[in-house]
Amino acid sequence: MTDSGDLDAAWLPSAAFRAVGSRRSLVRAGDGPPAETVYAELADACERFGGRVVRDGGDGDAELVLEPAGDDLGDDLGDEGFALTRRGGTTTVTASGERGLLYGLFHVVRLGEDAFRGERAREVHRPALATRMLDHWDNVAVHPVMGQVERGYAGGSLFWADGRARGDLDRVRAYGRLLAACGINAVAVNNVNVHETEARLLTDRIGEVAAIADVLRPYGIRTHLSVTFAAPMVLGGLPTADPLDGAVRDWWAEATGRVYEAIGDFGGYVVKADSEGQPGPFAYGRSHADGANVLAAALEPYGGTVHWRAFVYDHRQDWRDRTTDRARAAYDHFTPLDGEFAPNAVLQVKHGPMDFQVREPVSPLIGAMPRTRLAVEVQATQEYTGQQRHVCWLGPMWSEVLRFRPDGGVSAGRLADGLVAVSNVGDDPFWTGHPLAQANLYTFGRLAWDPAADPHAVLDEWIALTHPGAPARLADGLHAVLDGSWSTYEKYTAPLGVGFMVQPGHHYGPSVDGYEYSPWGTYHFADRDGVGVDRSAATGTGYAAQYADPWAKVYESPETCPDELLLFFHHVPYGHVLHSGKTVIQHIYDTHFEGVAEVEEARRVWAGLADLVDPARHARVAERYEEQLRSAREWRDQINSYFLRKSGVPDERGRTIH
Ligand code: GCW
Fold first, then answer.
1. 132-454 adopts what CATH topology?
2. Quick count: other Cβ atoms within 10 Å of Cβ 320?
3. 344 C-alpha to center of ligand 1: Å?
4. What is the per-residue pLDDT for 56?
5. CA–CA separation, 176 vs 178, rounded Å?
6. Does ligand 1 have an atom closer than 6 angstroms to the CB of 356?
7. 3-state helix vs strand vs coil in the chain, percent to 5
8. N or C: lower Cβ tally within 10 Å for the chain?
9. Which residues form the Glycosyl hydrolase family 67 C-terminal domain (predicted)?
10. Phi/psi-derived region of residue 540, left when phi > 0, alpha when psi is between -120 and 50, beta in every other case
């Protein structure tokens, strides 16, 4: 892939391959799809930069060798890992599997010239998480409300157009390549809300999924499908989808067998059941373990996995009912089922208990089911974080989640065996609508590979790869506008972890009471005296007690609860003094003024980079900064005015509040 054409090169611009493309390389490997990719990548780079690559038969003078590990040497590498060494002028990547060679090649690309300097003792790189997955909320048929991509902010679907799989899959191929370069190995190609047309991907339309899988396979990526729990009825014509019914089990087994005839390395199913109107096992009085296990049993003979989502809550609750707490729902539903899920069923848990807000505590379900496989789900698509019109680099948030230690011991990133992101990519020329949102996708992949990685270092890695040879002014400018952008977004939106306050439906822009009297369970309870949700065990919904210690104790009291989560866990008076020394009301005013000032500053920094960035890319970001600033001011003014009017407490600095 070159920088020309209508596809943005993202973090694989031609120049990133200069170091490998100008050398003599030797690839010793099988002829499986990923090994072919390794060879083709090198051949392509050599053509551009004058190097040479040979396969197998050794000319002894190679500067870069990629080869399979000998039987006894690869034990520590796993399926996907690789080892890197440099001795006597030769850099060697060894791997037990072909995917390891592919990841090793991209590692060398990241190192650039550094990969060919001095000596290097053997370093082993292997992914901490086995599944590193993107879920696309893409519809095949354009949905009347949600459009082609539900919560998509990057144009249409990469995979689907005009009601069917795209005939031209070049963009999907380029996507697979970008994903391999940041370590992603699984993609689910359709929305978890499975509508009528999409249901049929499982059966008579599986050929379309197979065509996509063929294009992703050379990049080490397995294809997954979202399916409806009611498939035996809507596709199979059965009178029931009861998971304990023999005919239902047989239907799933047969349908799955046919899927594997079409896609031999199919990854498995993703299921949203009994959630926001999707069908599920509750209709038959069965548990979610019963539900997941019938699909797991069908997939088991072929090595497939079912990702069963834990996003189960009452979306028709009465706002008058203060005893129901949506945050409790996933834990309450699922913890009694620990140990009942099949070994190839993975419970896919959103990182927070609510819904991808800019600030939430880590879900108490994470770590609470030691006998159940876990995947943590984050949202790269910025539904609640600026919808790719605002810059909001989420690396630090995801890193906090992955480093969180549910009982003070092992981190979430080590407990999980998968990390999943809702993809932020569409058919937009910059992939992600906002060109800087590419950093979220890249960071996701790298954190899934190594959840302990420093996200700021990953950001710098993305900057360097995307802009090879960038002058310091560009690298520093990019770092300045991205690093801290999550905190900026948090400052001008819902305060102190209280969440939502967005416009209902599309979720863009402020509406403080937009969901306050709704059935969705997302309330802030502001009145003239105070704001926040009492989730303590002593006087509130009891949610805080779902945590293990030390967190149950930390969150239980406003005295120990971290400031940034105070209003998630407690209802406090406006005059409550935070650990920061400020009152809650003054914190609200100050952060909202600061947030807008930070956007103004970022916009200024970006404007100053005009001479260093491709004009189309620069213009796209500049235009989005105008909208971000307009929107940030709207947020500031609505939130500040709302709380001034409720509380009657003036800003101690006397700034204009309307
Ligand atoms: O965040 C909410 C979204 C829905 C989405 C749901 C989910 C796919 O508003 O659009 O549906 O979560 O995660 O299932």
1. TIM Barrel (3.20.20)
2. 6
3. 24
4. 83
5. 5
6. yes
7. 40, 15, 45
8. C
9. 432-655
10. beta
Predicted pLDDT at 5: 53
Residue 2 has pLDDT above 90, yes or no: no
Q: What is the location of CATH 3.90.1330.10 in the chain?
A: 490-533+571-647
Angle (CA) 68-454-218 rounded to 5° is 35
pLDDT in tens, 139-185: 999 999 999 999 999 999 999 999 999 999 999 999 999 999 999 99
Cβ of 222 less than 6 Å from ligand 1: no
pTM reported for the whole predicted model: 0.97
The minimum-distance atom of ligand 1 relative to the CA of 146 is 10
- Rounded to the nearest angstrom, the distance between the alpha carbon of 199 and the centre of ligand 1 is 18
Beta strands 24-27; 147-149: pairing state: unpaired
For the stretch 27-45, pLDDT in tens is 998 888 899 999 999 999 9
Cβ of 192 closer than 6 Å to ligand 1, yes or no, is yes
Q: Is the C-alpha dihedral spanning 211, 215, 220, 223 positive or negative?
A: negative
Query: Which atom in ligand 1 lies closest to the alpha carbon of residue 191?
Result: 8
Kindly state if the Cβ of 151 falls inside 6 Å of ligand 1: yes
For 227-237, letters b (16+ CB in 10 Å) and e give bbbbbbbbbbe
CA of 303 to the centre of ligand 1 (A): 28
User: At the top level of CATH, which class does the domain 14-125 belong to?
Assistant: alpha beta
- Residue of minimum CA distance from atom 2 in ligand 1: 355
Give residue 3's pLDDT band: very low, low, confident or very high (50, 70, 90). Answer: very low
Question: What's the rounded mean pLDDT across residues 553-571?
Answer: 98
Q: Which of 276, 351, 378 to mutate to test the pocket of ligand 1 (most atoms within 8 A of CB)?
A: 276
3-class SS at 270? strand
Contacts of 72 (CB under 8 A, 6+ apart): none
> What is the mean pLDDT of the segment spanning 371-386?
98
276 included as an active-site residue: yes
**Residues forming CATH 3.30.379.10 domain(s) in the chain:** 14-125
Tell me the mean pLDDT in the region 442-455: 98
Paired residues of 183 in beta bridges: none
Q: Is the CB of 7 under 6 A from ligand 1?
A: no
Q: Decide if 609 contacts 618 (C-beta within 8 A).
A: yes
Ranges of CATH 3.20.20.80 domains, the chain: 132-454
486 touches 492 (CB < 8 A)? no
Task: Choose one of 149, 193, 500 to mutate for the ligand 1 pocket test, by most ligand atoms within 8 angstroms of C-beta.
Answer: 193
Give pLDDT, residue 4: 42
Catalytic residue among 198, 383, 483, 598: 383
Superfamily classification of domain 490-533+571-647? Alpha-glucuronidase, C-terminal domain (3.90.1330.10)
Q: Would you say how long the chain is, in residues? A: 658
CA 355 to centroid of ligand 1, rounded, Å: 8
For the residues 283-305, what does the mean pLDDT come to? 98
Pairing of β 90-95 and β 82-87: antiparallel
**Complex ipTM over 0.90:** yes
